[in-house]
Every structure is written in C-alpha cells, then in structure tokens.
Amino acid sequence: MVNMMKALVFTAPHTFEYQDVPRPEPAPDEVLVEVKACAICGSDVHGSSGENGRRIPPLVMGHEASGTIAQLGEAVQSWAVGDRVTFDSTEYCGCCWFCTHGMHNLCAQRRIVGVACTEYRKNGAMAQYIAVKARTLYALPPTVSFEQGCLVEPFAVGMHAVLRSGLAAGQTAAVIGDGTIGLMTLIAAKSQGAQVCISGHHARPMQLAAQLGALDCAQLPQLTAERGADVVYDAVGSQSSFTQAMELVRKGGRIMVIGNHARTIDFPLQRCITEQIDVQFSYSSAGEYPVCLQAIAEGRAGLTGLWQSFPLAEGAQVFDRLVHRDESLTKAVLIP
Ligand SMILES: [Zn+2]
Ligand SMILES: [Zn+2]
C-alpha cells in the first residue's frame, strides 16, 4: 500500500492545487522529513508563471523548509527520528573538487530542491513530507523555531555574501535592495557587528529594515566622514543598482554583487582601478547554515516580524497575492 500525503501541487502556469499525492520513500542516503514550515521564495513566485523553465509542472515547489525527521534511509547513521532540522536547498555530490574544497554551491551535480527543469525534477517541501539527502541536514538549536529554521536558507545566502566580503565589526556597510535577500544581507551584516545602511523602494520592507536597525543611505556621508561605505552589497544586480553601488562605496572599498537582475551591465573599469575598488560576486550559499543558526540562537539575528504564516492548504491564494504584489505581504511561510 502506498502512503499518501497532502501537497500543494503546481499543476499549470499560475495554478496550484492542494492534493493527495504519494509520500516519498527515502533513498538509503536520505531521510524523510515531516515538514513543519516552508517559506515561499521569490523564485517560486516568478517560476509560477511557467516562463523561465525552472518550474515545469506538475511540481511540488519549496526549498526553504524545516521539520522533524520521520524516517531514516538504510545507510543513515548520524541522525535520529524526531530530530529537528533544516536542510540545504542545494543537493550536491559531496565528492567533486568543488564539494571537497568548501564550494558545493559550484558543484556541477548541484540540484535545487523544488525545481523542475529540462535536466532534472526534484519535488520540494510544500507538502507534509520531503525526502532529502542526509548530508544536507542541519540540526535546529532548541530555541530556534521551525519558522525561523525555514528562513535560514535565504539567511545563509546573505551570510555567504557577508563572510565572503570580509566585513569586520565596526565597519560600515550599505545594502541596495529591500527584497528578502537584501534584508537577510542586512541582518547578516549586523550580526557581524557592522553599521548598516539600506536603500530600497518598498514601504513595508523598509519599515522592517529600520526596525532591524538599518539606517538610511542618505546618512552614509556623515557616518563615514564623506569616505563612503567599506562594503556595498548589491542585492538587485541591475545597471542602476551597480551605478548606485559605485556612488556609495569608498575608495579602496568593496562591492559585493549578489543579485543578477540583468544578464550584463556596463562596467566602470577605469574608476575601479584608479580607486582600487574590489568587485566581488556571491552565489547562493556554501555551508553557512550553522553560522546563521548560531546567530539566531544567540539573539544576534532577529528574524522576528520578517514573515507571515498561512496553512499550506491556503497556498494557492497566498501565491495569488504574491504574484499580484500584495504590498501587505512580504515573506510567506506555509504550515502543513
Ligand atoms: Zn529561495
Ligand atoms: Zn560536487
């Protein structure tokens, strides 16, 4: 007899159905996680139009999740049923040169959970259960809630950028972009003891940023004796955001580009050389989950107020609000 479960299935462009589907069976190196919280990512919202080829229906989306272990694959030894966990949204091989050098975000075998493209199809966590590779699991400290736990995935993206940039306590950072990754980068930078300014256009996230202790980029000249920011994080990645980053960064400073809204942009080569500006790039995350979990557990990274929760059964309506850019909704977390 096949065990069934409830899942929010993406059945056609702009269409989600709450259905009974077969429960996944964990492979020998996997565990079955009973999902307790799964956040909707901007990439899920974009993908739901069916246009970018990354969410080919039918598919269960969801790569930002947490839950408890319900069943172990035959070869899994280091985990136990009942453990509270979150997991890396990237499934990687674990043995190639990149994986063994701390860069599993660059693994050629990487597959994103909850994505279906021409190369692969991997059901995600907008369901009661999901099977994930044991090597991608991270234990949730007891004080970290499942909702906070599911947000560690985007938080790790911000943390990856902040740690790559070498931002130090007492330095001044500027974040361009008030989407989830912009806010997570802000939180990551603050958790490292930096002073952070933000630039964005949306009322609610900017209000949240202010509550999180972010200053306005207009204050940057006073804060830095006119020098500019030590590090600027571009969480948009367009011609205009990069131009703004060049305006905000100090001589000898660093621009870390995280967003890639534009495929190509004009690059101010001469100014970067004569002002010795480092331009760096950051892609996804590469094992920053424990750093993020510790920052949350120690109260250095308040994620409070960042999300709103809804029952998974109402997922279709929630997607509809996000697709239509309902300003009252920032980050939605679905609870199975
Ligand atoms: Zn995501
Ligand atoms: Zn690999």
Automatic annotation (TrEMBL):
One family name in Pfam for this protein: ADH_zinc_N
Domain Enoyl reductase (ER): 11-334
UniProt keywords, alphabetically: Metal-binding, Oxidoreductase, Zinc
Gene3D superfamilies reported for this sequence: Medium-chain alcohol dehydrogenases, catalytic domain, NAD(P)-binding Rossmann-like Domain
Obligatory cofactor(s): Zn(2+)
Assigned protein family: Belongs to the zinc-containing alcohol dehydrogenase family.
Name of the protein: Alcohol dehydrogenase catalytic domain-containing protein
Organism: Faecalibacterium faecis
